[in-house]
């Protein structure tokens, strides 16, 4: 299993941050490759979503489900088909990181755990002479960059303006 964990500080309380993490339909504005998010009903704990991703000549719709919600601290999700993957958004108060002109701060963590070799080859319509192992080798280095992009854009959305965001990479494949 591979794992990505990145975090950053946002100048808002966990209670102000959490609704942004909960709103999966906002996610396409944070990432380059997520084209759409459609809610597909309720799972056991939280909503289920279809996440349509595109990259290169490929398009894929991942089926996901929110499996645990603990506002304002964490939201856990997992993919339901085609790839063994799960993740969590965590928010921890970190008021000591707020600059003098801000009231408070929190640290947002994005964590994803996945097995790139568990991908179902039949789930993608690959171009001729392109193997799934080639796709995995090309996509894997891009995942950390994409996680950083998501967290940076999320902070801008939460705070209402873009700023330089310092990202901490705790783990990467």
UniProtKB/TrEMBL annotation:
Q: Per its UniProt entry, which superkingdom is the organism in?
A: Archaea
CDD domains listed in its UniProt record: SRPBCC (cd07812)
A Pfam family annotated for this UniProt entry: Polyketide_cyc2
This protein's name: SRPBCC family protein
Species: Natronoglomus mannanivorans
Lineage per the UniProt record: Archaea, Methanobacteriati, Methanobacteriota, Stenosarchaea group, Halobacteria
């Amino acid at each position: 299993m591979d794992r990505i964990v990145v975090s950053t500080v946002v100048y808002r309380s966990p209670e102000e941050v959490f609704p942004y993490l909960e709103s999966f339909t906002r996610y396409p504005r944070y990432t380059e490759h997520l084209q759409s998010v459609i809610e597909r009903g309720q799972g056991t704990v939280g909503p289920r979503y279809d996440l349509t991703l595109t990259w290169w000549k490929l398009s894929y719709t991942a089926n996901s489900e929110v499996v645990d919600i603990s506002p304002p601290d964490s939201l856990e999700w997992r993919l339901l088909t085609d790839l063994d993957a799960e993740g969590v958004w965590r928010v921890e108060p970190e008021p000591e990181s707020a600059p003098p002109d801000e009231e408070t701060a929190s640290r947002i963590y994005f964590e994803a755990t996945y097995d790139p070799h568990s991908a179902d080859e039949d789930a993608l319509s690959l171009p001729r002479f392109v193997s799934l192992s080639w796709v995995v080798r090309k996509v894997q280095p891009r995942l950390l960059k994409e996680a950083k992009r998501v967290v940076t854009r999320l902070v801008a959305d939460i705070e209402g303006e873009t700023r330089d965001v310092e990202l901490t990479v705790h783990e990467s494949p």
